Automatic annotation (TrEMBL), chain A:
Signal peptide: none annotated. The keyword Zinc does not apply. Pfam families: BPD_transp_1. It comes from the Bacteria. Its main location: membrane. InterPro entries: ABC_transporter_permease (IPR051393), MetI-like (IPR000515), MetI-like_sf (IPR035906). Belongs to the binding-protein-dependent transport system permease family. The chain crosses the membrane at residues 46-73, 108-129, 141-161, 190-213, 251-271, 298-319. It is a multi-pass membrane protein. PROSITE patterns: ABC_TM1 (PS50928). This is Carbohydrate ABC transporter membrane protein 1 (CUT1 family). It is found in: Cell membrane. Residues 104-319 form the ABC transmembrane type-1 domain.
UniProtKB/TrEMBL annotation, chain B:
It comes from the Bacteria. It comes from Isoptericola halotolerans. The lineage of its organism: Bacteria, Bacillati, Actinomycetota, Actinomycetes, Micrococcales. Residues 1-21 are annotated as: Disordered. Belongs to the binding-protein-dependent transport system permease family. This is Carbohydrate ABC transporter membrane protein 2 (CUT1 family). CDD domains: TM_PBP2. It is a multi-pass membrane protein. It is found in: Cell membrane. Pfam families: BPD_transp_1. InterPro entries: MetI-like, MetI-like_sf. Keywords: Cell membrane, Membrane, Transmembrane, Transmembrane helix, Transport.
Amino acid sequence: MNHAPTAVVDVPPEPRPAGEGATRAPSPAARPRRTRRLPWGKWAEIALLAGPGIVVFVAFVIFPVVMAAYYGFFRWKGYGPPTDFVGLQNYRLILTDPVFQDALAHNGFILVMSLVLQGPAAIGIALLLNKRMRGRALIRVLIFVPYVLSEVIVGIGWGLMLHTTGAINDLLTRAGLEGLTRDWLADPDVAIWSLMAVLVWKYIGFAVILMLAGLQSIPEELHDAAAIDGASYWKAQRYITLPLLGPTIRIWAFLSIIGSLQLFDLVYVMWGQYVAATAGTSTMATYMVVNGRISGSYGYGNAVAVVIFLISLTIALVYQRFVLRRDTAGALTGGAS
Amino acid sequence: MTTTTTRQATPQKLKTSHASGGWGSPTAYLVAFGLVGVCLAPVLYIVLGGFRTNSQIIQSAAGLPDPWQIDNYLGVLTGGIFWQQMANSLVAGVGTTVGVVVLGLGASYVIARYPFKAKEAMYSLFAAGLMFPMTVAITPLYILVRNLGLTNTLAGIILPQIAFALPVTVIILVPFLRAIPRDIEEAASIDGASRLGFFARMVVPLSMPGVVTVGILAFVASWNSYMLPLFLLSDDALYTLPLGVQAFASQYSTDTARVLAFVSLSAIPALVFFSLFQRRIVGGLTGAVKG
């Protein structure tokens, strides 16, 4: 590949990819590609095309993450260079802070409940919508609407509805179920379930769309063959659809897990800076913002970011090692390995 | 890529083996109807609430407008704040989208088609970006943007948003660019086109479907973005819609009807955008996940 530029015209024809030589061999003009391009020109092109992207990406993604690790070792108010090196003190404080432990527990609860509540429901809905039905395309669009709305709109709308004098309690009262009215946002026994309801409402459309795409990649013939062999609908779903949907389910679960660990917007909009912790809905990310940015402890906030990152990374790597690994062996054989 | 194949397979090949007749089972409709109701009821509550008065809402929070009021909507639409925030959101969204497409296409093209050793490393670098969500980087990002003197500028929002959208963009675009046949490139080169000329005249048009997908994803993400503007913007003249909606809701917390009208109006652009491009958004999301 690396011919000297001067040898361009005289080099013997390079071995070409199969199928190419047959049609072009007679033409003397068909010189091997790239030999006439100067190497420095190639590098200049690469720099011109990829350079800006790499610079922006490294500057605004990689660099901040690296700096978070650095700042995390300091007690620092965010002005001037950090000088008050405290070693692992920030991390010790974070991990022993009961408020952080609560937040971590809430993240764990949200993670598990998101999988448990959304997974089976999404698969069921996708199976249903995959059948012959009038208006299926419209239904699919409509259940996706909550996913498109911004977290702020969802948070404010649901916040008003779940308020003690809001629409939910009003509906319950009018239905004669006054005993069921609650302070859905502030009651620590109920608040996290309110959050779960909003999360499921907002994100299940995404899960359903993914599952539908997965279902549609399953060959029709398998179901026909199962029907000929006398398998019932449910048996066919259990032994054909579910295993073949496996890769989709596992990828969705991965995205859901990462999303649960990073959850911030909805909680922060609905509960604000202070109420989330007492209502029992705080997450690691809201803890980071409240104890880092808002209280001006930037070293501490960065250390929290590192903790969130390490927890997410560990879970992601474990998940990829033990769950997603099967998919790299091939979707069809995944169940057998 | 899966984006296109799944979409094509959808409409005709339905599972006929277990469906009875043309309509399917009534249970399915019942469940689907209930599901759509649950998904849309909160949206309807917000939209209809904007047509009510505060006294109507106090009397019964879940009631229907009676009589219908358009004052709330008119008040928001003639107020100026809404349009200013809409313009800010548009600038941030368009800036992010253009940046993502231009930078993402360049980097993806190099990864997909230039024969040099470091391209694998480049791809891994961008792919690793998926592991760094904005939540983790937000505090140092704030400090970085402040040191660059970009706090309270829309550029300070746009640049990080471009950077964080690049991983998904590269992962979606590289297969598109790889799929462009070598023959076309050779033909162009015989015709005297430089590789950059080929990039501009052939690659960009041929990869349009992928470009549109990543562009839409970037625009929607920017339109709904909350955490980054929350950290970087303190000047309310620069607020984007999400921040503006929240500020409006806390400023007029006693004027629920007006808040609901503001929230509905701020949702309309996203909903219109979604209904125009829903096939591509859905296809892009499933493609991004499976690809």
